[in-house]
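INFO batch 0412 | record 1 of 1 | parsing
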Amino acid sequence: MTAYERDKNRYFNYGDSNGSRPMSWAFWNLVISMRDVGLFCEGISPNRHWRLKHVKAYFGIKGSKERILEQLNELYEEHILFMDLKERQ
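INFO prediction complete | emitting tokens
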């Protein structure tokens, strides 16, 4: 089991202009990682301690930086579809 799969069931309250709502740590880390890998693909390091190997280990994925970004986008689409199905029930 990857850390991403474990964090799907861990929630925190995210506050924004719409109020406070629950969000899973897995989704939060997915969105942040998509941002960071996108910057890394453009040649920008998000911060001096950031490493692509940490993203690979957390999500359990392999490949080049471009392939990692594609896989993260696929995970995002799967999560959005899952949440849509969950809301319809």
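INFO post-check: The first helix runs from residue 3 to 7.
INFO record closed
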